[in-house]
Amino acid sequence: MAETKTTYYNIDLDSYTLDPVQQEDLNQLLEVCREHLEDPDEQLVARAFKLCYLSHEGIERASGEPYYYHPVAVAKIVASEINIDDVSVVAALLHDTVEDTEVTLDNIREKFGETVAHLIDGVTKISGVFKSRDTKQAETFMKLLLSMAEDIRVVLIKFADRLHNMRTIQHLPREKQLQKATETMELYAPLAHRFGLFTMKSELEDLCFKVIDPNSFKFISRKLREKRESREQFIEEFMQPIREELQNQGFTFEIKGRPKHIYSIFRKMQRQQKPFEEIYDLFAIRIILEDPHMKEDCWRVYSIITDWYTPIPKRFRDFISVPKANGYQSLHTTVITKQGRKVEVQIRTRQMDDIAEKGLAAHWKYKEGKKGSETLDKFVHWVRDILDNPRPDAATEFVKDFQLNLYQDEIYVFTPQGELRTLPQGATPIDFAFDIHSEVGERAMAAKVNGKMAPLRQKLEIGDQVEIITGNKINLNPDWINDVVTHKAKSRIRQFIKQKERQVAEEGREIWEKRARRGNIEISEQDLMQVAHKLKFDSTQELFYEIGKGNFDANKLYSAVKQFTGTGRIEEEESEVDKRVVPSEEEIQQSYIDTARSLGDEKALVIDDDISNIKYSYANCCNPIPGDDVIGFISRTGDVKIHRSNCKNIRHLIQTDGERIIDVSWAKHIDSKFLGAVKVIGEDRVGMINDITDILSKSMETNMKSINVNSESGMFEGMLTVYVDDINHLDRVISKLHKVEGVKSVFRYE
């Protein structure tokens, strides 16, 4: 094996003969390339396949299958689902070789050329040691974006890699599943949306949702299956008159009717606080006009649809005249049938549909790798503008800000000259100023919105015309950091804040130096750093900043330095500084193992598969009950906090402190009662509350802790907290309450 590892990248790949099994895998890949790519170089793909197989020979994935299956699957996604080119397929086959094997970039460059080497380098994770897993992920993400700015295919290959990892995530331990799913949901799915990869974004979100909240995923999936036949019948009845009219007028078209993806339905249920049965626009109908139909034909189709069905004016969107920032174009309208049902209809040409589904990949295909595409150039400019000299020491900060720029809701505003600018929803004139130019943002004094003076912190609306009034000097305000949403604005304001902090630190240093001279004491910068660490400061800069702010007395530093220079050490004593001590990850883990075994009365959970004597408590933010999918988080005191796996707070903890996430499961026999919250909406009639309490106490023998009711305009809204055994008990409560006369909706309160 050792000899193979050092020689396989030097063999003649063209003459190397694969075993029958691997040859069949190669044949299948080549068939996919022939079907979806234009004139692929099959010899080049075959050589890459052979090196992929040889370099990963003997290595298995978590599923137990040969590792080379993964890069081959990624290559198939690149070819069949993204449809880029044969060079990208080659890079996909070899994307893990430089990171995981002894193949070097020079080997790749020699055998496959500079372009393939560059693509692989962009996709490869950064090697080296970083202070934390989060920093490493952030650095990797920054590198991906930097490489993407040079060649857009880098990010497309990375998306294919992540998509296959998510499709096979079931083979990983639960903790790692949650970490990868959370990262994908927070970064890669929004990034896919930003780059117009709608199909991929939707699948990534559903795969993540299946991991994070499996119960809700199964519930919505089951409901969609149950409604499938009636949904298909309704779509056919809705489209029949439209189809006939389009055919009569000579249109060539395709009609698609499909349910919205599962996670988007869940989000709508959460946002509207409605049960599944009350979400009516569960599907969208898409009319795709084939070539040579043009955008003006989309308007003709819109006219035909609105002749048959009544449109809802507020739900009309013209993304053809004003495309989204990712190049998306389509007409959207929602109409009402004679039976009162709402239906969303999307109208677009075939090219528009390609771009809507495949975004960047379609732009790349339509420019055919030769002349530039305006939309593609905008992507590259956007990425470079976002990066804008990011500080290597602030990678995590960068990624946090970057997420704000992966907005799904956009607004369109105009300059005084009528130039269109796209900003995230919630943007202010400050964001607008920085979007125009950094110098405009720095010198912004006031703003005019639609010709009237407006606060710089005012949120902009779609269609606003914005004018920025600037001064001769920099006018940045540190408080603006909480009012801006774009990375460019946040980054510059944060830089300004850091600059101010450095000035305060310099003032603190001057205070210290005067005190040191007065006490006739000298200390080197290196020794002063040791003293700062002893006083629980990360650096002398932080120490001097606290002195400059007046939060730390220079006399305390003088005493510590005098003690250090006299004895070489500082006596430990209880002080305000000591209270700032934060335990290390290792100390937290050790505390968890050694001291977290003083269990209370309840034994409802099994932690780490077989440990049952662990002290734990339930998170108030999500209130888990037996049957919920749950996860544990080791607190800094060493005990375990139990969250529902779909809890927003646990997603944040997974990102920032993933090492402290542990797997937990409910015990088979649980005697305790748990608190569940239910929201009830219905008619405000006499006896309603009495009927609800009777159902709970008499029919279901369920104890109620509290009930809070608000009534207005003949309707009431109530919040009930009840003691239940598990999720099934809570579901039965909800089902019973649904049957009370006058109750319109009942659902678990999140």
From TrEMBL:
CDD domains: ACT_RelA-SpoT, HDc, NT_Rel-Spo_like, TGS_RSH
Residues of the TGS domain: 409-470
Gene Ontology CC: plasma membrane
Keyword Kinase: yes
Keywords: Hydrolase, Kinase, Transferase
UniProt xrefs under PROSITE patterns: HD, TGS
NCBIfam families, per database record: spoT_relA
Domain HD: 67-166
Pathway linked to the protein: Purine metabolism
Function according to Swiss-Prot or TrEMBL: In eubacteria ppGpp (guanosine 3'-diphosphate 5'-diphosphate) is a mediator of the stringent response that coordinates a variety of cellular activities in response to changes in nutritional abundance.
Protein origin, superkingdom: Bacteria
Pfam families: ACT_4, HD_4, RelA_AH_RIS, RelA_SpoT, TGS
Protein name, entry field: GTP pyrophosphokinase/guanosine-3',5'-bis(Diphosphate) 3'-pyrophosphohydrolase
Any one biological process term the GO annotation gives: guanosine tetraphosphate metabolic process
Family: Belongs to the relA/spoT family.
InterPro entries: ACT-like_dom_sf, ACT_dom, Beta-grasp_dom_sf, HD/PDEase_dom, HD_domain, NT_sf, RelA/Spo_fam, RelA/SpoT_AH_RIS
Source organism: Fodinibius sediminis
